[in-house]
Design a protein that fits this description.
The protein is mainly α. The chain has one domain (about 1-95). The protein is built from 5 helices and 3 strands, in the order βααβααβα. The chain has helices at about 10-15, 20-30, 40-50, 55-70, 80-95; strands spanning about 1-5, 35-40, 75. α1 packs across α2 (about 20-30).
Length: about 100
């Protein structure tokens, strides 16, 4: 099975119907059997971005995401020290690029 490394943007679009790319992400995953891999940082970011868990639909969405991760539907891969070193190299290499959309 293919593996896809996902950032928080893809996860957010998958779990939030109001996201502009929601339909495209859902369609992609419907057409492509793949094992999704992300970092615990991305999971935490998406849980936070989804909103306040005192809102029942928000809590349900957060729990759907966390449940997928706990069941292995989304694999969480922790970063290693060498990953941070490579990130530092890439950050330096692309420092002249704007972070603005």
């Amino acid at each position: 099975m293919r593996q896809i490394l996902s950032d928080s943007g893809v996860l957010l679009s998958d779990y939030q119907r109001q996201e502009p790319l929601h339909q495209a992400v859902v369609a992609f995953f419907d057409q492509n059997a793949a094992h999704l891999i992300t970092s615990p940082i991305c999971i935490a970011e998406v849980v936070w971005l989804v909103g306040n868990p005192s809102d029942p639909p928000v809590l349900a969405t957060q729990n759907d995401l966390l449940g997928a991760a706990s069941r292995g539907g989304i694999e969480e891969s922790s970063l290693l020290p060498e990953d941070d070193s490579r990130s530092t190299e890439l950050n330096q290499c692309y420092a002249d690029l704007s972070m603005e959309p």
